[in-house]
Amino acid sequence: MTTGTTGTAGTAGTAGTGGGTAGTTGAVGTALATGTALATSRAGSGTAGSGTGRLRRTLLAALVAAAVVFPISAAAASDVPAPVPPAFAEDAAPQSRYAANRANLAEAARMAQDADRPGRAARLRSMEAAGAAQFLTFDGRGTGRAVEVFGELETADRVTVLVPGSDTTLDTYERFRAGAVALQQRLQAEHPRSAVVAWLGYDTPGTVSTTVLTAGRADEAAGELAPFLDRLSTMAAPGSRLSLLCHSYGSVVCARTGTGPAVSDMALYGSPGTGAGSARELPTGARVWAGRGSADWVANVPHVRLGGIGFGADPVDPAFGARAFTAGAAGHSDYLTPGTESLDSLAAIVLGTTPAPEATHA
Questions:
Q1: What string of DSSP letters covers 207-250?
Q2: Which three-class secondary structure state does DSSP give residue 121?
Q3: Alpha helices, DSSP H, located in 44-93
Q4: Which of 122-129's residues contact partners 24+ apart within 8 Å by CB, and which partners?
Q5: What's the burial of 128, exposed, middle or buried (CB within 10 Å: 0-12/13-18/19+)?
Q6: Mean pLDDT across 36-45
């Protein structure tokens, strides 16, 4: 999801969410807020109940459609040619995956250049990191998929998986990577046996689209993330502790992902809601955390859910039952910025050093 309230063009974030059209917040907020009023109002005399329900849904759909009519730049990436990604055996070692995916990435950059897509080619060459990149997964087709490791996964006993929000694609990947690098550097300063995994393993919704208001993409992503977490726990050091850090729409993904016992903590930040009424409803035995920066515009998104649109309860509301963590003055795209209180808090969750008490369940 993307920062702003005025309808002017937004600037790119730095820590795992999309750029896009800044007017989305106000437009979507207005649509949801108006929809709430429609859903709670009574129709005039003589109006049948079923007809009223249909009218409310029709009006809400029209409001949402009006809020998301703008095109997004990521759609232009669908015609970029790229090779089919390599296939791996389930027990393939991380190092063999890294080597094969680097070769695939280099070929994707060459094909993009030959197809007269120099912008995509340059971004892919940057992702190669001079031959040092560690991708467990890479698929350069369309808007792309990428799962990158920072640190030594095989020896790490603290492994963090970052799940990004809307408009995160190969064309905006650098800001997602920047957040992962900042977190890894922060963790290693205190605990050298740490690794961070940047999981762009799903087709993120466009910030300015109908998909960002529903859980459809999140449900698809959860089906990919759950088995990935199971495989990841076998790649890391025995007994390693996994944490899920879920930003913006990524919090909707995590809230639908069944996690095994290896996942100890799940942190939701910059979240518009999860679709669940409380932390207890999430399909995980992990500790659930929630935090929001004081400068994050997502606080203005109405926490409603009507006919599958919107995400309901606010995760930072004590009634939701998540553990609170401090995020300082973070804006929507600033949670993993070096030197911030939010980055320190998220690192403490991963390392198990956060003293914050568990919130009172409603």
A1: SSSGGGGSSHHHHHHHHHHHHHHHHHHHHS-TT-EEEEEEETHH
A2: helix
A3: 49-67
A4: 123/170, 123/171, 123/173, 123/174, 124/170, 126/174, 127/170, 127/173, 127/177, 128/102
A5: middle
A6: 38
* Separation of alpha carbons 194 and 212, rounded Å: 32
**Contact assessment for residue 148 and residue 126, using Cβ atoms and an 8 Å cutoff:** no
Give ∠ CA 195-204-4 in degrees, rounded to 5.
100
Is residue 353 within 8 Å of residue 158, measured between CB atoms? no
Report residue 130 CA to chain centroid gap. Answer: 27
24's enclosing H/E stretch is: helix 24-40
Least confident range from 45-54, 74-83, 298-307: namely 45-54
SS3 123: helix
Residue 238 burial (CB < 10 Å; 0-12/13-18/19+)? exposed
Return the DSSP state at 295: B
Paired with 247 in beta bridges are 269
Cβ–Cβ contacts within 10 Å for residue 43, how many? 14
pLDDT in tens, 282-299: 999 999 999 999 999 999
* φ, ψ of residue 8 in degrees (nearest 5): -90, 165
- What SS3 class is residue 137? strand
Q: Encoding tokens for residue 154?
A: 């095989």
One-letter identity of residue 199? W
Could you tell me how many helices (H) and strands (E) the chain has, helices first?
8, 8
Give long-range contacts, CB 8 A cutoff, 24+ apart: 55-60. 56/306, 57/306, 57/307, 59/35, 60/31, 60/34, 60/35, 60/306, 60/307, 60/309
